[in-house]
Write a structure and sequence with these properties.
Shape of chain A: globular
Bound molecules: protoporphyrin IX containing FE, FE2/S2 (inorganic) cluster
Order of helices and strands of chain B: HEEEEEEEEE
CATH topology of the largest domain in chain B: Rieske Iron-sulfur Protein
CATH topology of the largest domain in chain A: Cytochrome Bc1 Complex, Chain C
Strand content of chain A: under 5%
Largest interface: A-B, 45 and 26 residues
Number of domains of chain B: 2
Shape of chain B: elongated
Strand order of the largest sheet of chain B: 1-9-8-3-2
Order of helices and strands of chain A: HHHEHHHHHHHHHHHHEHHHHHHHH
Distance between the termini of chain A: 91 Å
Strand content of chain B: 25-35%
Helix content of chain A: 55-70%
CATH class of the largest domain in chain A: Mainly Alpha
Strand order of the largest sheet of chain A: 1-2
Radius of gyration of chain B: 33 Å
Largest sheet of chain B: 5 strands, antiparallel
Number of domains of chain A: 2
Number of helices of chain B: 1
CATH architecture of the largest domain in chain B: 3-layer Sandwich
CATH architecture of the largest domain in chain A: Up-down Bundle
Structural class of chain A: mainly alpha
Oligomer: heterodimer
Number of strands of chain B: 9
CATH superfamily of the largest domain in chain B: Rieske [2Fe-2S] iron-sulphur domain
């Protein structure tokens, strides 16, 4: 039924000629995102972009709402991903060659040193950013209904991020790596401190089992290296990517970022700059309003205070990505990632220090392996995860330091948190602890009464007092979280700057002497 | 199973045999069972039945010049061997706190990692170490000592 004079040959030539045009249109299906319609289809037509909603509330775009910290974490992760894959070209996870391959990357491979430095800096930045991002989600009370689940996912992201850093630390197989992981693996074994004290280790040795599964052997050796490598380049990044996808998707499904009650009125001035808000009526709407719980921008309030995510949100995100890249590359040019001597199982590095974000832990571990390495961290991790279920109030959601007590309570909690942790540490450094006074004291007493547990107890009592004082669970959460951050900072600073050889106290690393 | 084909059922009546339900549940159940079983199998994998580590038993000969109570460290071993009037004995130099290697000092042993200190017989002197340094089993065979890093003996056992 072809028309008269039809020539397939002719059509073929025509198709051939228009290939570039058609390929372009197949890839960029919606055309340039210039109208509301094409901007929308730009987003929902793309599997990655559609993790965002099509329109974004002006409140969410305010710098003070997020400070870009979540995106900065994402950006740092993407940078470690790219540089990490490049490092894998040369890195060999075997104990006899691992150290040499890092040396090669550092000194021989073209741009190897820069890539390694960027990887190291981006990893550090990611840890800082994820902690700050968590603090911002906490202080703006953004974890409340319906966002409890996303707080959970974020919690998983935090743990996975720390796991990634820890596993990466072993890979260079230098002195720093070897002894940090030896200590880390023995922390996993430290429940023996308890099982030994009650004399059940011979048949219930959970500590020994944990250590053996982590190391694949009874020492930090070839099995441990390959296990850490597998976790570092495969398992944990995949887990992180999966959790991140859920994390972003949940933001969208929970109706965008948390907003204070009168957010619409408060962005009125900004809204004026975006006139006209609609260039044309969207040709596609999701009829999700009925199935999505919570407020989407389309439910209950007009779309006037939302703007198209393309370009307003995307350009902001791109800006943060570029800033993060700039920071990492800049730092990478200024400062090299460390590499000590080859690992030597006979002579520990002195002092043997873990990565900086674990030095607070190492500080309390130096009082009791079990309490410092497992007991208190578990308490913190579980406590952090449960925050949204312990504080179910409504007041102050989406507001910085929102809720009863507010900034004033946070300020006093900082005074208390810094004060208590510095005072207890100073006391222990100056006067020693129980064993120095009573050499025969049972281990159980030291396990349960040591500077770490004393600080934790003070924080707990103060937080309960805050719940009563303000008659609010949110006040207790504000107090506890602030104290936790302060304690973390104090212990980390002491562990990093004031502990030298033999874990003795020094006013400055310059006094460390011959090491 | 007892319905007669002649019996007219209203479409609002529940199906007497929920055949789809049964098949669905069977599929679901077998999936979970398979999942649980394979998970159990996989969980067994990371714990090796035999761990690949170098032999824990080794032989040493103490130098004749070794003084009373002076430590001898066999090359490549985290063990300190001593000789005194009562005999020879070996003490592990792996710190019982978190596994760093202790150094011998005037007071006994000191750990560089978190400042644990031990007496000359391995008893805890200071710091976070929860247990004394273990004494290791030594067997004498002429002048050759065999030390077993895996079997500990009571503190004070000299041969
Ligand atoms: C790899 C780690 C993480 C990444 C990449 C990430 C990424 C993000 C991004 C991009 C956002 C959008 C808003 C913003 O930029 O702040 C966000 C929101 C959020 N994140 Fe995370 N996050 C991570 C870890 C965490 C952690 C550790 C927590 C808390 C335990 C958390 C809890 C939340 C919550 C509750 C929201 C919603 C905030 C709101 O509605 O205002 N996230 N996250
Ligand atoms: S490992 Fe010896 S004191 Fe910590």
């Amino acid at each position: 039924m072809k028309a008269e004079g039809y020539s397939a040959m002719h059509e073929f030539w025509g198709n051939l000629r228009s290939i570039p045009n058609h390929v372009y249109r197949a890839v960029f299906r919606g055309g340039p995102p210039k109208t509301d319609r094409t901007r929308s289809s730009f987003i929902f037509g793309n599997v990655f972009l559609h993790l965002h909603s099509v329109r974004t509330h002006l409140w969410s775009l305010r710098w003070s709402t997020t400070m870009g910290l979540g995106i900065m974490t994402t950006a740092a992760f993407l940078i470690t991903l790219v540089t990490g894959i490049l490092l894998m070209f040369y890195y060999k996870p075997y104990t006899d060659v691992a150290y040499q391959s890092i040396k090669d990357i550092h000194f021989i491979v073209p741009t190897g040193r820069l890539i390694r430095n960027i990887h190291r800096w981006a990893a550090n930045l990611m840890v800082v950013a994820v902690i700050l991002h968590m603090a911002r989600a906490f202080y703006t009370a953004s974890y409340r209904k319906p966002r409890e689940f996303n707080w959970f996912i974020g919690w998983g992201l935090l743990v996975t991020t720390l796991g990634l850093s820890f596993t990466g630390y072993l890979l260079p197989w230098d002195q720093l790596a070897y002894w940090a992981i030896t200590i880390g693996a023995n922390i996993a074994q430290s429940p023996r401190e308890i099982t030994d004290a009650i004399g059940i280790t011979s048949w219930f040795d959970i500590g020994g089992l944990q250590r053996e599964i982590l190391l694949g052997s009874d020492r930090v050796g070839a099995e441990a290296l390959i296990r850490f490598y597998l976790l570092h380049v495969m398992l944990l990044p995949l887990m992180l990517a999966g959790l991140m996808a859920v994390h972003f998707w949940r933001i969208r499904k929970d109706g965008g970022l948390a907003k204070p009650e009168h957010a619409d009125e408060r962005v009125i001035d900004e809204a004026k700059e975006f006139y006209p808000v609609f260039t044309d009526v969207p040709n596609k709407t999701y009829h999700l309003a009925a199935v999505v719980k919570g407020k989407t921008p389309q439910v209950g309030s007009g779309p006037e205070h939302t703007v198209p995510s393309m370009p307003h949100l995307f350009y902001a995100e791109l800006g943060v990505l570029m800033l993060t890249t700039l920071i990492c590359v800049g730092l990478a040019f200024m400062s090299d990632a460390p590499l000590k001597e080859l690992a030597n199982p006979m002579v520990p590095e002195n002092p043997a220090k873990a990565p900086w974000y674990f030095l607070g832990l190492q500080e309390i571990v130096s009082f009791s392996a079990f309490m410092g390495g497992i007991g208190i961290p578990m308490l913190c991790i579980v406590g952090l995860g449960l925050i949204p279920f312990l504080d179910r109030e409504k007041k102050g959601t989406g507001e910085w330091f929102g809720g009863p007590g507010g900034w004033k309570l946070v300020k006093w909690s900082m005074v208390f948190g810094f004060g208590v942790s510095i005072a207890v540490e100073a006391f222990a450094i100056r006067f020693g602890w129980l064993r120095e006074w009573l050499p025969d004291i049972p281990q159980m007493i030291i396990t349960f009464v040591n500077p770490g547990t004393v600080i934790t107890l003070c924080f707990a009592i103060y937080s309960i007092w805050s719940v009563r004082r303000y008659n609010s669970t949110r006040a207790g959460a504000l107090a506890l979280f602030t104290c936790f951050l302060c304690g973390f900072i104090v212990l980390t600073v002491i562990g990093t700057y004031f502990r030298g050889p033999n874990w003795n106290f020094y006013w400055s690393p310059a006094d460390w002497g011959g090491h | 199973m007892t319905t007669h084909p002649t019996e007219k059922r209203s479409r609002f009546d529940p199906e007497p045999i929920a055949r789809r339900d049964f098949l669905g549940l069977a599929a679901l159940g077998s999936m979970f069972a398979a999942f649980a079983l394979s998970l159990l199998g996989m969980l067994k994998l990371p714990k090796a039945a035999v761990s690949a580590s170098p032999a824990k038993k080794f032989n040493v000969t103490l130098p004749d010049t070794l003084a009373d109570g002076e430590a001898f460290i066999p090359p490549g071993r985290n063990v300190a061997v001593f000789r005194d009037a009562q005999g020879v004995y070996a003490i592990s130099t792996i710190c019982t706190h978190l596994g760093c290697i202790v150094k011998t000092s005037a007071a006994g042993f000191d750990c560089p990692c978190h400042g644990s200190g031990f007496q000359k017989d391995g008893a805890v002197r200071k710091g976070p170490a929860p247990k004394p340094l273990p004494w290791l089993k030594v067997s004498l065979n002429g002048s050759v000592l065999t030390i077993d890093e895996e079997s500990t003996v009571k503190s004070g056992t000299k041969v």
